Amino acid sequence: MKALVHVCIFGIARHGKDSIKKVTLREMQSLLGSLNFACRVVVPGRAFCRRLIDSTIGLNKPHYRIRITSNIKADLLMWKSFLKNFNGLTLMPDRLWTSNEALEFYTDSAGGSTLGFGIYFKGRWAHGLWPRTWHERGLLSNITFLELFPVMVAIILWGSELRNKKVLFHIDNEGAVHIINKKSSKSSDVMVLVRRLVLETLHHNILIKADHVPVVPFPEPSTKCISDTNSNSEPSMDSITEESARLFSDSLAGNTWKSYSRARSVLDSFQLLYTLDKVWPVPVEQLVQFIAYLSLKQSSPATVRLYISGISFSHKERNLEDTTKNFVVSKMLEGLHRNHPQRDNRAPVTLPLLRQITDALPSICSSTYESLLFKSSFILAFFAMLRVSEFTTKNKSDSSTEALQLSDVVVSDCQLKINIKKSKTDQRGYSTFIVINKYRDNA
After folding, report:
1. Residue 166, class by beta-carbon neighbours within 10 Å (0-12 exposed, 13-18 middle, 19+ buried)?
2. 171 falls within a domain
3. Among 122, 143, 221, 340, which has the minimal tally of Cβ within 10 Å of its Cβ?
């Protein structure tokens, strides 16, 4: 079998002027038959048959010719390199999967021209800085590429100690997880790593797969940092970290954070669905496709614009170029609004409608107290033109001081004076007073 497959591959994958540019459909199908048979023993090799299979789609005549692309040739060269040293024997791997934690096997990467990667394996470690040429080529913005690189290096260094094992990696990058499991990527740069990674696992008879582990968010702000700053001693670094997280978190409203998080989640799902590389800054082409995808999913223009704003914030948060400001992206958003004009169907609350609402309260509420509570709230919101969040709390356990207190209300014979401590247009809480004069029909 090895000799048969090697002969089939050699003519196509060889280098130089003698390399074959095209083959017939019959020849490609013959090669695929041999490779599929080989994959019964060399299971990871199936990933490198996909491009060969795709090249035959739509062809139905045996004499039709297929162009040998650079990617197909690279896949075949991977097979050739493996078969060169393969003795035809493969041992059965371990029955159970072993996590990288159980093996004391960890890898991580950090994007940045002055940063790099690190690997730890059973008390031994390796690390390195990213080459300057990678920064010049823009590879440092490809987080998936950077996450895969230390995994490949680790298998090269210590693959012999993982021989015949099934290794389960826990990785916080969904793109890297998808590529490790599929052994394929649309990125030519990533495929260079994937081919070498698979080749090393084949040499050592290692099976690998990955599970996604969500990124642990910033710790919740605590009062520890406040107490530290009140003491005579200097604040600890933990307190400084918590305080920086708290200040950054307080820069946006809670609902805005939720919306922006939802935007990143929808983008991640879109990239995973169409096997797109998860890189920052997000390529303009991906943003264009993302907007078109949301349009076909019947998302409202306001929702799409909110998602793009969330992605824009993520770029700024990472100190990256904001590709959402691209001319084409802006025009697509404008086109979405033009094609889906929306009218505001909400009707204002008028004084007669307010009377109907308050008159119905006694028959709805469970007590006279509850009826009077809602009646006073509705009347106050109507005449002071307040949002609900500007004078109430979210729930009984909400300990914030933004809710209206007795000390915030001053009543006189002809007017009501209210102190609004925070509002949508006063996010910093400078507070303002609203004066409501007596209404002539005593509503």
Report:
1. middle
2. yes
3. 122
